[in-house]
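USER: Write out one fold?

ASSISTANT:
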Amino acid sequence: MVSPPEGDGPNTEEIVGDERPLVRERWQALSRRTRVTVAATTCAVVLSGVLAYVVANRPPAPPPDPVAATTVRITDVGLPVGLSPEFPVTLSATADSRVVLMGMQGGYDNLLLWVMPAPGAALPPGRARILHTRFNVFCHGHVPRRGMPLLFVTVRNGRGEGLARVVPTEAQFDRLGQAVQKVCRK
């Protein structure tokens, strides 16, 4: 049998008495102040990791109530043209969170409401959407009363569906009264 030349083989020499101390022995060799510092630092790191995990994986907040997140206001009340029993009303709708405009309904029997855009139009957060409506007036009913909603806008989001009230200002009520009187005088 041939033995490897000197220096080419693995070092198999064993040094007697050169045992490394165990972790427990090393820990006990540290000063009390150092052990407390290491333990507190380890706890702080673990606690911050757990808190970061909890914050990163918490469920998203539910969307707000669709009516509370939506603001609809009248921007213009037009007058009837010629012998037409209709007059236009322009609305501006904004929302704090994403909602879908499902439609509108009038608050009075003598005002028939036509709406553009069609139901199902999305209203992105922070952007205004112009809604064009036309009211067809039937003169047998009463005129809208001040302080009462003229119409209701149906809005929906992931939380539910609701009716946003649209109440005209004093000047808009005066303009609505003029439009209804103009149609009914014909």
About this structure: The longest strand covers residues 86-95. Strands lie at 70-77, 86-95, 99-106, 111-116, 121-123, 129-137, 151-157, 160-166.
